Structure prediction request, 128 residues.
Amino acid sequence: DEFQTKTGKSHTIRITKSALEIIKQQVGKHPRYVFPGKNNHRMRKADPNEALDRALKGKDFSGTVHMFRHTFAAIFMMSGAGTIYDLAQYLSHSTIETTKIYAHLSQDYMKDITDKLEIAQIKGNSNT
Prediction:
């Protein structure tokens, strides 16, 4: 009945200080689970997405919990927080190929790169 990862291996989950504070507030509320599901039992796999659906109802925004993982990866890469290898470690991916699926770059970001390349090319041509 215990949770298992897809690979069966344990993973380190890195969290922010504010996320840790939220988890600490849960201590002692349930003898076994940090965030229990309905009737104080183990949370179903669908519970987080159903809660997100309720929270987003009527908003001009939709998505799934897993989509946030993709969003995180894209923001990680676009912010320059690290390399794709760093992101793979952070997401506990066993291959870079998996990480590449997550590391989408926005159209605006790609345009900015193109603009920077054009400026660099103009500067390079003016030095000749």
In short: The chain has a mean pLDDT of 87. The two ends are 69 Å apart (CA to CA). The first helix runs from residue 17 to 26.
